[in-house]
Specification:
The chain is an all-alpha fold. It contains three helices and no strands.
């Protein structure tokens, strides 16, 4: 494997030689150790920064998705509630007619009850 020197390696090496070794008192091995230490710190800090940015981005995306699902659920819940309220209203109307000895459509009551039961059963199964 070849030893490839990146731009970051060159910049750190230049910094170590020009700033830390002004008196030429450091050996080549010491310069190499200092350079590797600085490089590892820079890479570690960069990785931590990227991890926190990715985590924040993931949290925002998850929150947006959760809001989207919640809004869809709210709309569905409103529509289902209105439909069931309509069916219950039909049943109450027919029951009121039955109490007043007026002609009653038992088929409307039975169909409405069946639709309510089926609709509620489907919603329970969906969850």
């Amino acid at each position: 494997m070849q030893n490839v020197e990146t731009m970051l390696d060159k910049i750190v090496r230049y910094y170590v030689i020009s700033r830390l070794n002004k008196t030429n008192s450091l050996s080549k091995a010491e310069i190499e150790n200092i350079t590797k230490g600085i490089l590892s710190e820079v890479i570690k800090d960069t990785c931590q920064n990227l991890d926190s940015k990715l985590l924040e981005k993931s949290k925002k995306e998850a929150f947006a998705e959760k809001q989207k699902i919640l809004n869809k659920f709210k709309i569905t819940l409103i529509i289902e509630t209105l439909f069931i309220a309509f069916l219950v209203g039909l049943i109450v109307n027919q029951a009121t007619n039955f109490i007043d000895n007026q002609p009653v459509s038992f088929t409307t009551i039975i169909i409405s009850l069946l639709l309510c039961v089926i609709f509620i059963f489907l919603n329970v199964k969906k969850e």
